[in-house]
Amino acid sequence: MTVPGAGAGWRTGVSAGELTAQLRALGVRPGQTLLVQASTRALGPVAGGSAGALAALRAAVGPTGTLVAYTATPENSDTSRLHARATAALDARELAAFRAAMPPFDRWTTPSSPTMGRLAEELRTTPGALRSGHPQTSFAALGPAAARLLDPHPLDCHLGERSPTGRLYAERAHALLIGVPLWCCTAYHLADYRVPKIPSKTYGCVVAGPDGRARWQHFEAPDLDDLHFPELAEAIRADLGERISGGPLGAAACFLVPIAPAVDAAAGWLNARAGALTG
Q1: Is 21 within the bounds of a domain?
Q2: pLDDT at position 217, please?
Q3: If you ran DSSP here, which 8-state letter would residue 104 be given?
Q4: Which Pfam family, giving just one, matches this sequence (predicted)?
């Protein structure tokens, strides 16, 4: 899902050390695996900008912890809302030219910003970071658990059990939401896969063929959306209570959410709603 970023050029502001202390107060501990989704604009001025914020996060989880960011590229898809908005006013000839000019996804070089924000891109481009290979819903990770969290990431499992999302659940990871609402957590999509008879649809994206040239690839996968997430998050909040911690980080309000209990609560709510609709 889309998270706003901030402009470049920060030089002064809250220090990395101060941010690390605030992260400790939120409940972030050394050795944790942490999915971070952030609005750097909400975070406010940070010394060193997004690099300073990432340094604070790395210090908080320590050398045995792993940071994960959602580095999705919905602009690479012809089935996303982002693509639909970008092409809505184009005629047939303009649409064909637009599609022909779309660059193929490359897990190592395709940027995730501005769609996913500056902090996600900062993590993705940090030396030592790895990235999953899904051309629409990739994740990047930095830390000792990165390789086992990210691969494999099959085309037909954007955010399900066989994706990094499923492995974050198994890892008992936490999600840190910085300056974004409680509903803005990609990991909740794992609950969608736990609803019986989840509908599917055909997705399309641009990838590099064996010759390196761009080609369209289409595949069937569960039909995912986040329009129900605001209501879903209220159910998660009611179920988890004090297991969701909150507090400030810089100028941002934050939530620290245990992913597995949150997904379990979300799946319960989704299945109860599905039963009510069909009962």
Answers
A1: yes
A2: 94
A3: P
A4: Antibiotic_NAT
Residue 254 lies in a domain: yes
CA distance 13 to 180: 20
Rounded alpha-carbon distances, angstroms, from residue 26 to 98, 184, 267: 45, 18, 26
Alpha-helical runs (H) found in the chain: 16-26, 40-43, 49-61, 81-87, 92-101, 118-124, 146-150, 164-170, 189-192, 229-240, 259-278
What token pair was written down for 54? 């990432």
Does the residue 212 lie in any domain? no
Average pLDDT over all residues of the chain: 92
Instruction: Tell me which residue range forms the domain holding 250.
Output: 16-74+111-199+225-278
The answer to whether residue 174 sits within a structural domain is yes
- The Cα 34–Cα 53 span in angstroms is 14
Q: Which amino acid is at 167?
A: R
**pLDDT tens per residue across span 113-164:** 778 999 999 999 999 999 999 999 999 999 999 999 999 999 999 999 999 9
Helix locations, 88-163, DSSP H: 92-101, 118-124, 146-150
Question: In the structure encoding, which two tokens stand for residue 27, read together?
Answer: 């409940």
